[in-house]
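Write out structure tokens for Betaine aldehyde dehydrogenase.
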Amino acid sequence: MKEIKHFINGEYVSSSKGKTFEDRNPANGELIALVHEGGQEEVDRAVAAARAALEGEWGRMPVERRMALLHKVADGINARFDEFLEAECLDTGKPKSMASHIDIPRGAANFKVFADLVRNVPTESFIMDTPDGAGAINYAVRKPRGVIGVVAPWNLPLLLMTWKVGPALACGNTVVVKPSEETPHTAALLGEVMNDAGVPAGVYNVVHGFGPGSAGEYLTRHPGVNGITFTGETSTGEAIMKAAAGGVRPVSLELGGKNAAIVFADADMNKAIEGTMRSVFANCGQVCLGTERVYVERPIFDEFVQRLKQGAEQLKMGWWQDDDVSFGPLISRTHQDKVLSYYEKARAEGATIVTGGGKPEMPGELSEGNWVQPTIWTGLSDDSVVIREEIFGPCCHIRPFDTEEEAIALANDTPYGLAAALWTENLTRAHRVAAAMDVGLCWVNSWFLRDLRTPFGGSKQSGIGREGGVHGLEFYAELSNVCIKL
Ligand SMILES: NC(=O)c1ccc[n+]([C@@H]2O[C@H](COP(=O)([O-])OP(=O)(O)OC[C@H]3O[C@@H](n4cnc5c(N)ncnc54)[C@H](O)[C@@H]3O)[C@@H](O)[C@H]2O)c1
Ligand SMILES: O=C/C=C/C=C(\O)C(=O)O
């Protein structure tokens, strides 16, 4: 049986207590690897290695050399594209059509983009008057924050982990990564790429394990960690904020969502259907930016519902390797139970089930996987739990609206504030409504179109801080002002 070990100080190491847990293929439940579970000892070793690397060659490395190494890491991911693809798809069950276009290319891009960015970003400078007339010059210096703890989720494992590791290393920090227990493969494989690229030992470390009482908690509580960046559920974000309060360490939190799409009657129907198909069903609905609430202007409501239903019923489920497969399983049996519990709640609350609503019949081995049907509901009241709580599954509720004001109020009626998608051909309305969305990210006539120079993050309970472009530097670097009296 394959074993996945920690990556500490440039070496793959076993758990000192010999503890392991299972990594299963979500498509058929097959055991694919045994993963070493880290405890306090492994976290201590990883943090110590990361600290030593900061004080060693990495900390003294000229910026140009550091950036060249990060480019080599990106090239190393691309050179082993098929291995990363297989590792990611085995852990998640996601179709290769998705992972080959999104997950793996973004894994490489996250290193290149931030290496180039950090090399080119200026810092601020102010010249001031002084009473003696000689003046003074202020300028800011960006310094690495230190050891960054990276806690990542399972839905886009390589993409979301490197989205943090890329800028962290570009700013000169070192990292200890705690990948999701569901998806340990690609974080482990990245260790080999780091070594092959010549990144010094201790710069990139990985400790596997769970959250509470395991590697996640030990890492976030560790006093040797200078900042924690986390993507995952809002409730976990709360626990991590509490852990970070000890020692007053900064956090960057990218959390849950209950994202709305608003489809106006003047939308290009084909584009709106194509985009909403992706925003609801891509990655089996397991995308934080995904749409779970769709508001459609009444004159086109029936047509929209029918066309989304047709699209959902044409999704092809199956093995990740098959070229025509567009829909994979949910990540785990536990998550399948959670999503199915919302399917039951929708039924109990009297939803009209337009399509789906249960488990599909899957052939052969696939019958052991965590499959659920793509599901569309109408007819629920605005206070239904199905409409208020994040499900993180391939499902949405569609509700008609009559006025722009009503649509805005409905979309914003949520404790979350991550993303929104608007569909309209009216440019003035697009600007007006986009500005009224209480979210960190609003797409107009598109979804998940990403320029990595832009601010990314959530408002309300969807997060704290913005990563992406220069904005992530607020977290990954410490700005320190130098004031020189002339
Ligand atoms: N805003 C975003 O950018 C974004 C992106 C992707 C996913 N998400 C959110 O992530 C969630 C799905 O991912 P998930 O189920 O892996 O999230 P999760 O919060 O259950 O787990 C995320 C990570 O945190 C670790 N963890 C759990 N409890 C911990 C604790 N007490 N201390 C330290 N670490 C702990 C887990 O082991 C895992 O590595 C959804 O809510 C989704 O909306 C948000
Ligand atoms: O599931 C959430 C997706 C998050 C995407 C990003 O963080 C990104 O594209 O940088």
